[in-house]
Amino acid sequence: MQKSEKERVVAELTERLRTSETLIVADYRGLTNAEIDGLRSKLIEHGARFAVVKNTLTRRAAEAAGADALLALLEGPSAIAFVESDGDPVAVAKALRDAAASTKILAIRGGVLEGAAMTADEVESLAKLPPAEVLRAQLVGAIVSPLTTVVALVSAPLRDLAGLIDARIEQLREQGDTSEAGAPAAEAAPADEPAAEEPAVEAEPEAEASAEPEQNEETTDTETQEEQE
To answer: What pLDDT shows up at residue 174?
Structure first.
């Protein structure tokens, strides 16, 4: 391979490493070209590019890209599944696991997930996870459920407070109506008081009138006694 060709390969690998936050490394030794092509086509469906790489050039690219976690995995014949930004790491891990199980040749060494190194066992655990769509739904459910509970807890006292305020307003309205209805009755009472006093004033002449006949009777009796004498 010419020097210019090596530089081109290193540049391409460096760019892939910088744009791929997740990758899985496998030992492809013993696979046929047909098996490699079939696995490559399968991984493309899940958003990953499968490439057989030279370790020396890949180490240079890893150092240039700052992907130090990859260096320990570059021992022996290496092939890397570069998961693109819109790819499904879980589906890629499952495809590689299935290929390893079916061929009895492909061996998964490990990988890098979001910049963190993964062992072969961790890649196996990744392959056992539900599909990305299911994981997203579970994550959304886990986030929304507590929020719904919190909203319900916060909303319940607010609804109770609103009910109390409405009840108090209604009570004040009823008290206002009672006060207004009682006001005319209170005002009517002074108007009735003079009517109660008038009979008392009229009763005095009657008392005087009744007193005068008594005096007349006494005068008549006196005059009768004098005439008899």
So the answer is: 74
